[in-house]
Design goal:
Blueprint: H1 2-40, E1 54-60, E2 65-68, H2 70-78, H3 80-100, E3 105-113, E4 119-127, H4 135-178, H5 184-191, H6 194-204, H7 219-252
Antiparallel strand pairs: 1-2, 3-4
Helix pairs in contact: 1-2, 1-3, 1-7, 2-4, 4-6, 4-7, 6-7
Length: about 250
């Protein structure tokens, strides 16, 4: 069925993009986390074993700015691996069927004789299409795609929430670091974008006495690219879910 072939082509592209976007989201947060983990980990000063080196969910304190808990960064960094594996498998499956599935036509000429002895030449056209997948397959992939849609949405939600939380807390740190007062404080809290807040963090945030932050990165760009990649992956999984459900419903007719 030509419609199934078209859907499989779209699915192979969507799943391939999900792999790329998942890798992008994981790499960008990994770079930002690795760059800041030593500088932001002040929890050891409290005498405990807790690690707060995450760039997400950072917290402003009376004396310093500390990072969030490691589980948040761990989830955002390694979470995409699960849906990348599923996506890679499904992309290869559908891609193989689209690329190597037979889709041409064959012409056959058959010579026969009718009742009066006349020679009759018949020409038949056979269309070779990729075999149709059973309804059970599309129901199964619909469920998988729906689960991955929810999974990627949770990943995106934690990513952007942690980003906005750090942004909000670092605004308070900027107040103290720049010794602001009066109406300028309103500019920091109401007009300054999160991208600008992270730019301030890149340039003015001090290193801890026992650590050294090598080089300079664009933290805002890394995190925003990761957030956009995570959001795009969610949209593509939602799109894939709709396509799978559509074919599953057609099979029921």
């Amino acid at each position: 069925m030509e419609q199934q072939r078209l859907v499989e082509k779209r699915l192979s592209i969507a799943y391939s993009l999900c792999v790329i976007l998942g890798a992008t989201a994981a790499i960008t947060i990994g770079v930002a986390w690795g760059h800041w983990k030593e500088t932001l980990d002040h929890c050891g000063n409290l005498g405990g074993r807790r690690n707060c080196s995450c760039i997400l969910y950072g917290q402003n304190t009376l004396t310093y700015f500390q990072g969030g808990g490691v589980p948040a960064c761990g989830w955002v960094t390694f979470g995409p691996i699960a849906y990348m594996l599923f996506s890679a498998g499904l992309a290869c499956f559908h891609g193989f069927r689209v690329v190597f599935g037979s889709k041409g036509t064959k012409r056959r000429t058959i010579t026969t004789r009718n009742e009066v002895g006349e020679t009759v030449i018949l020409q038949t056209i056979e269309t070779n299409n990729t075999s149709l997948l059973p309804r059970g397959f599309w129901i199964t992939t619909s469920v998988i795609a729906a689960v991955l849609t929810v999974y990627s949405l949770i990943h995106f939600a934690i990513y952007i929430d942690g980003f906005l939380s750090t942004c909000s807390e670092y605004r308070k740190t900027l107040e103290k670091a720049l010794r602001l007062s009066g109406t300028v404080i309103s500019v920091i809290h109401r007009r300054l974008s999160c991208s600008a807040v992270f730019d301030f963090m890149d340039y003015i945030h001090p290193n801890r006495a026992d650590t050294y932050r090598s080089g300079l990165i664009n933290t805002a760009a890394a995190l925003i690219i990761g957030i956009l990649s995570s959001f795009s992956a969610w949209i593509l999984f939602l799109f894939a879910t709709v396509l799978n459900i559509r074919l599953a419903r057609i099979k029921l007719k």
